[in-house]
Amino acid sequence: MLRIDEIRSVAVIGAGVMGSGIAQTFAQAGYAVRLQARHEGTLRAARDRIARSQDAMVRGDLLSEEAARDALARIHPTTILEEATRECHFVSESVPEDLELKRQVFAALDRQVPPGAVLSTDTSGLSISAIASATSRPERVVGFHWMNPPHLMPTVEVIRGAQTADAALDLTCELARRIGRVPIRVEKDVPGFLWNRLQLALIREALHVVEQGIASPEAVDLAVTAGLGLRWAAVGPLRLMDLGGLATFHSVAAYLYQDLSKASEPQHALATKVAAGETGARAGRGFYDYPAGSAEAAIAARDARLFELLKLLRLPVFRDRDSAPDPTGASPGG
Ligand SMILES: NC(=O)c1ccc[n+]([C@@H]2O[C@H](COP(=O)([O-])OP(=O)(O)OC[C@H]3O[C@@H](n4cnc5c(N)ncnc54)[C@H](O)[C@@H]3O)[C@@H](O)[C@H]2O)c1
User: Fold this and answer.
1) Which residues are CB-neighbours of 243 under 8 A, at least 6 positions away?
2) Which helix (DSSP H) or strand (DSSP E) does residue 78 occupy?
3) Widest CA span in the chain
């Protein structure tokens, strides 16, 4: 297995929402990045998206103009998979969430990527083992699940497939730390991994509460942003119980569990909106209305709030020219 200091060049496959943010993050940490898409237009759109994200970070005082420019110069776009991968040490795949497509991409990667490299997938919940089995090196395939927006969110899940080697998992966790991310190790390749199991448990109950008229979407969102979310940034749910007293939580669980949603498929409140084309901010309507032009503003407002929280919490998300680890052994700009 490669040592962490031997990882200098990263290939990012797929240049959509996640691939562009992942490429940006690696480049801002000083890594040489090859960003691959099938079409020139996708690569141009990715470059624009990265430049816009960087502008916002510069305005938010999270990145210097020089560091932004240097990072952009470290991203080499290409439509040719072989060019992206032939000298890479680590691959981050972000093509759409379709098992057959991912298996095809991994089979091609297996043929082209140098044998020592680690192959990672950003799947949101497909089986890592099923993706890995399309290769001849399942021990070097890991789940590396980023959060959206990837250039801002501090955590990444690092997931063990059935045959993933400890060394590949350890290396990926170390790499995550090098790029200013907090790795969350997930030891079993289960649907939803960890983050989405926790998140969807809350979303299922949030939909239930709205559907039952117990509280409005605004009230549910406020309870999370101003209440649960704030506390959970300080203490996770298991320590929370320790601090509050397990007997109390035992009593609450004993009477409350039976009243919570047990929906085993997407609820009416969600399904009808999707069927009606009310699929969220970009469609103009979801649980809230987004008049023309306001979706981008809503996303920018979310990012601005994240900027403030990240600064406040002093999370090491942003690597600048001065603070970047030096994966090349030379200056990150050089
Ligand atoms: N969007 C999110 O919130 C989010 C969060 C975490 C993980 N993910 C996961 O990340 C992955 C990518 O999601 P996304 O939101 O970036 O999707 P996206 O649709 O924005 O981007 C995917 C890109 O891959 C390209 N593509 C398709 N086939 C390809 C191929 N064979 N080779 C190279 N590129 C190809 C598409 O043209 C597109 O540009 C998915 O597995 C998704 O589940 C998404």
Assistant:
1) 235
2) strand 75-78
3) 62
Total domains in the chain come to 2
Domain assignment present for 110 = yes
Q: What is the domain-level CATH number for residue 298? A: 1.10.1040.10
Q: Which residues pair with 186 in a beta bridge?
A: 159
Rounded CA separation 88/14 (Å): 15
What is the amino acid identity at position 81?
Answer: L
Convert the pLDDT of each residue in 129-158 to its tens digit. Answer: 999 999 999 999 999 999 999 999 999 999
Say what the alpha-carbon torsion angle 125, 130, 131, 136 is, to the nearest 10 degrees: 160
Report the residue among 24, 38, 94 best suited for mutation to probe ligand 1: largest number of ligand atoms under 8 A from its CB: 94
Range of the domain at 151: 4-181
pLDDT at 263 over 80: yes
- This prediction's pTM: 0.88
Ligand 1 neighbours (beta carbon < 6 A)? 13-19, 36-38, 42, 94-97, 101, 105, 122-124, 146, 148
CA of 163 to the centre of ligand 1 (A): 24
